[in-house]
Write a structure and sequence with these properties.
single chain, alpha+beta, Rubrerythrin, domain 2, binds zinc ion
Length: 140
């Protein structure tokens, strides 16, 4: 199946249409079976902007590569955090506060889990947090 973006030369309506092949499109066009759903004109052409023949398996492969790329970056980021930050688990909000209010702990970097409400509360108190998705190792 091929998806073409078609344009009506009469009213400039642009719409998508599926064809079993490019030959089928040519055939239907020649016989004037293609019509605009708005003005019913038969002056239908392939739209010039047509991103049309994007092979679906290629599209999927691109998506998978993109996801892999993001996952890799997140993994690197996660490693950096593990190496440089102290894990405080569910105590994140508490620890963040104690660092913020206790001068001695000022330079300690931590990471952990917090609810959206806790993050919002911390923000209100002027404590900046950075949120990011955490990928578990087993998801590789
Ligand atoms: Zn039209």
């Amino acid at each position: 199946m091929i998806k073409y973006k078609l344009i009506c030369k009469n009213c400039n309506n642009i719409f998508d249409s599926w064809f079993s092949s490019s030959k089928e499109y040519e055939k239907l066009k020649k016989r004037k079976y293609l019509n605009c759903d708005i003005c019913d004109s038969r002056k239908i052409e392939k739209a010039l902007m047509a991103p049309n023949v994007l092979n679906s398996s290629e599209l999927k492969r691109n998506d998978i590569n993109k996801i892999k790329d993001i996952k890799l970056k997140l993994k690197e980021f996660k490693k950096f955090i593990k190496d440089n930050f102290k894990y405080v688990g569910d105590n994140f909000a508490y620890e963040a506060r104690s660092i913020h209010y206790d001068i001695k702990k000022k330079n300690k970097a931590i990471y952990g889990k917090a609810s959206l409400k806790e993050i919002e509360d911390l923000k209100q108190e002027g404590i900046q947090t950075q949120e990011f998705p955490w990928i578990e190792d087993k998801e590789n």
